[in-house]
Amino acid sequence: MKLAFSTLGVPGLPLPDVLRLATTHGYHGVELRTHPEEPVHLGLTLAERADVAAEFKASGVEILGLAGYVRVAAPGDDEPVLAGLRALLELARDLGAPFVRVFPGGGTEQTPEEADAAAARRLGTAAEYAADLGVRILLETHDSHRTGAAAIRVLGPVGHRQVGSLWDVMHTWLGGEQPSESYAALAPHLGYVQVKDIASAEDTTPLALGAGVLPLAECVEVLSRHGWDGWLCWEYEKRWYEAAAPLEGLLGVGHDHLARLLNESA
After folding, report:
1. How many Cβ atoms from other residues are within 10 Å of residue 205's Cβ?
2. Which of 21, 48, 220, 266 makes an SS bond possible with 261, Cβ 3.0 to 4.6 Å?
3. Are 65 and 93 in contact (CB under 8 A)?
4. What does the pLDDT look like over 128-179, one tens digit per residue?
5. Pairwise CA distance, residues 6 & 13, whole Å
6. What count of Cα atoms within 13 Å lies in the side-chain half-sphere of residue 231?
7. From CA 260, how far away is CA 116, in angstroms rounded?
8. Distance CA 135, CA 162 (A)
């Protein structure tokens, strides 16, 4: 498995500094939070996009994916959601990123069946466009669909290879799933896995990997047992928890912890 980290952990950090952290601490890739607050966002010109791609290529670090904020199950008309998806896919194509992350984002005014249908319809429509661009859309286990069992209610009906799953191990755990259950549901669709650690279900402030309660060892063991060889991406939610320790000082320890789990599960 290859290791990456998300720029959610280093809010607003210039790309040269992000790439320096990746190379210094042995990470193969970076997941780019795609937001107006960040160096990489939907408003970049074609020249700026080319510059970003060139910076990554020169560093030897891969762009794992773009962490966007499209909510595919959200109430309302389809077209704004599809327009957001198209823009995210085009940016990924221009940067050479293989994946884009989307959220479910179902609303309380919908039934679960309505949210499932909206997400499946929109993802199915976007799938062909994604195929043309060579990018894969990944539905994260999050918010209204935080478990593998919930995500598969959307991904099953879509049934397209360009639409897959992003396993956020915190949300499936908070949803009451065991790692083996989450993997069984998501495996046919799995794009990559987001790892993290927290103190408890009540306190989700990000911690160094291995310092909290999330079943990271079990997750890695399940993946290894099934021969999965994709990406583990550390999503440290510093942007939402300003009091959390800076990620920069934790990256080396985090890399070593994941490497140890991989060795032990081999």
Report:
1. 15
2. 220
3. no
4. 999 999 999 999 999 999 999 999 999 999 999 999 999 999 999 999 999 9
5. 11
6. 24
7. 38
8. 7
